[in-house]
Amino acid sequence: MLTVLVSGLASGALLAAAALVYNVMFSTSKVLGVTTGQTAMLGGVFGAWFMTRLHFPVIGALLGSVIVGAVFGLLTDLIAVRRVLSRSDEHLWLLSTLALATITQQAVALWWGTEPLPFPRIIHQDFGAGLLDQKYWLPVVTALALAAALELFYRRTLYGKLFLAMSEDAFAARARGIPTDRIRALSYVIVGAMGGLAGFMAGQLTFAYFAVGITLSLNGFIALAVGGLGSNAGALVGGAALGILSAGASYFIGGEYQNTIAVGVLMLVLLVKPAGLFGAQVARPV
Amino acid sequence: MKVLEARNVSKRFGGVVALSQVTIDIQPGEIHGLIGPNGSGKTTMLNLLSGYYRPEEGTICLGEMDLSQAAVQRRSAGGIARTFQKPRLLPTLTVVDNAMIGGWTATRAGFLSSALGLPLPAREERLLRARALELLSGVGLGGVLSRRASLLEHAEQRFLEIARGLMGNPQFLLLDEPAGGLTGVEIGHLQSILKVVRDAGVGVLLVEHHTDFVFRVSDRVTTLDLGKVIKHGVPSDVRSDPEVIRVYLGP
Amino acid sequence: MPPAADTTRRRIAFGGVLLLVAALPFWVRNPYQLHIASLIGVYWVLIGGLNLVAGYAGAISVGHVGLLSVGAYAFAILAGPHGWHPALAVLAAGALGGLCGLLIGLPSLRLPGFYFAMSTLACSLIIGELALAKQNLTGGGVGLAVPGFAAPFRSARGLYWLVLLLAGAVTWFTWNVTRRMWGRALIAVRDSVIAAQATGVPILRVKLTVFVFSGVTAGVAGALFGSLQSYITPDTFVFEMGLFFFVCIIIGGRGSIIGPLIGTAVLTALPELSAPLARLSNFLYGVLLLVVVLIAPEGIGRLLETSIARIRGQRPTSLPVDPDLRRLAAAIRSGHSP
């Protein structure tokens, strides 16, 4: 029972991190990128590569993964979002981020292979540590740290305040002289770095696996929907709830229904309260 | 004769009061101008009448029917058509197709009968197309019928929206700043078109900034300021009203 | 309006292509090529229906592979162990696909595009999971054998002609819909929700109708697909296939029927023609999708059109607006007294 709680929290923490990433991305660009999961996938895969093939020290691999994520985030903005936002068709960014996510996933599959490979230890620890194993608490600490860092960023720094201004009303922000293109690019760099970090820290849980991206994009989105778009607290709660629910379902009903449970939760939330627990109105009047 | 009326409507956005206890009515066969400075609530009123906003207080009525909470689609079906400040056209379709979508409320054919190629959809298509051609030539777009809407000039877009609005045989036509960006000649055309529309029995609400044009063409004018009506009457009275001059027209 | 000679030339060309396609089993060089042609037809049965949803109504469904698998398993189970007549089983597969479309579409179509896309993705994953888990029904990971159809459709050629018939039916249905007011309503829903509302289009009902229709065609396609492959497992219906269907439409061009049809044929045939291409196929679909979205969002068809127009030097002439007030008055009055 305790195992269910702990492993659920750990996997949920990764989902929460993805939901946080969605929030930041949405705040400056009103885009929900399918590429979210890929940033974490890259963090995991590159982290493993740095440590096992290039024999980087842990710190070096960590930094490397964050940088890879950040670069990917920037590329997402430059390639998939910037050109598309200038056209008013909202469907286009969905397609372009979907395309970029597919390209990334397939490219990694071609380069790294389609087998999941174990992620090496980050901190020196016995494998018999049970529930205190770092693969459980590393993601949780990371998710909490990211949420806290975001709070500080939004409240205390100039750039954070600019992000908030942009998320309120991007048009007015631009009219006031805020360089919205550059701010958005910065936000995507941050998004990529966050994803890369989360992927690295959760690597021992997910393994270095090319297909992590799309399922993380989906489940991270479910966590986001449950918690409410735009709320970081919601992201944490949504992620934890989904993680524990999935782990519980795996334990009591069997692992084959994992997706069904998760999606069942999603459908329920969307039917009853599409805005999620802490979010603002979402359903468009039809 | 049905009258379109907003009675004592109020609308708030967050802490901002956009309209406060405003009453306005549009009679069939008249042009009712609605003017006022930026932020006075003109477009808000138009959005309330057409159903894109719902009032917090007051009612929107068409004859006896209370439309206050009715969806936009129910109002179009009920005989209220509108144009938009920034024209909302379908860029990949031709002028004719854009006009024809205005006839949706008159369409009886369903998905299945359309898919099976039954005679009803074909007949409706013919009739609607013929009507669209007449209306489009009527507003002056007879020369660009097959042109994609994305390639249209600004004036052409505005007139296309009017033709589209007229397709559904509306009892009321609400126009959101239709003269915006038009040359003097084009405004002259707009004026003739609106007079024809009015004389055919349609009630027209004309939200506009171009005050000369409004005073020339309207039968009645209402002036809003900061969400309240400050003057209502025939154009000559409103134009010479000191409050209106102070707040909006200038000395 | 094209001159009469042009229309006749088009009709002749169309008839010729039709003849060529119908006679295909006689001129292809080997059974494998016939199989590919049938596969294209089967995919088109699904994609033709999905076209109304994604290409016309603009709803991004990446999970239609789930509906394909529903149809395939339904057909395999009903026509196999339960011994139903294949024709009945196909109808049931279509009906089941439509029902699933209704169940998925009802809650999710009223949500913004991203939420909807994710919901369809999620549902296709659920269906995959259930197919794996319900071993007694679906054979689990081992899969199911899929029976063929009754004569004369039992042979490879016969199946091809059945597929051609159904693909032709789907093409005809969707072509009809897009030519009429429903076609315009769909495009309004895609390109301007505000204009759609203003002209009275019931947005949710329109989207749901075409989504259910696409469920029916996906179910039928699933039955045909299963029979063509003669054996199905949950691994057959991967997420990438759902993406593939969708990419065919976008690349072929939204708002067109012939575009996605050509797109389906090309994208299905290409990986089969060269092995290295097959390995890279998913990667290339992503690249193609990205390129099209960035450079030619209306699809390759439209890109060709504008390039040809530019080469021909056609420039839209600018005529001043010139109202015909007499006709306008007559038109408005005739509307008020039908």
Structure report:
Chain A is an all-alpha fold and 286 residues long. Chain A has a single domain (2-117, 142-272), classed as ABC transporter involved in vitamin B12 uptake, BtuC. Chain A has helices at 2-29, 36-53, 58-85, 91-112, 134-156, 158-168, 170-175, 180-201, 203-206, 212-227, 232-252, 258-272. In chain A, helix 1 packs antiparallel against helix 11 (232-252), helix 2 crosses helix 8 and helix 3 (58-85) runs antiparallel to helix 4 (91-112). In chain B, helix 5 crosses helix 6. The model of chain B has no long low-confidence stretch (mean pLDDT 92). Chain B is of the alpha/beta class. Chain B has helices spanning 42-50, 72-77, 95-100, 111-115, 119-139, 154-167, 184-199, 211-217, 235-240, 242-249, and strands at residues 4-13, 16-26, 31-35, 57-62, 65-66, 80-82, 172-176, 203-207, 220-225, 228-233. Chain B has ten helices and ten strands. In chain B, 50% of the residues are buried. Chain B folds into two domains: 4-79 and 170-249, 3-Layer(aba) Sandwich (Rossmann fold), CATH 3.40.50.300; 91-158, no CATH class. Chain C starts with a helix and ends with a helix. In chain C, strands 1-2 form a two-stranded antiparallel ribbon. Chain C has helices at residues 4-22, 24-27, 31-56, 64-79, 86-108, 113-133, 135-138, 156-179, 181-191, 193-198, 203-229, 239-252, 258-273, 275-295, 299-312, 325-336; strands at residues 144-145, 231-232. Chain C has 338 residues and is an all-alpha fold. The model of chain C has no long low-confidence stretch (mean pLDDT 88). Chain C has a domain at 29-239 and 263-276. In chain C, 76% of the residues lie in helices and 1% in strands. Chains in contact: A-C, B-C.
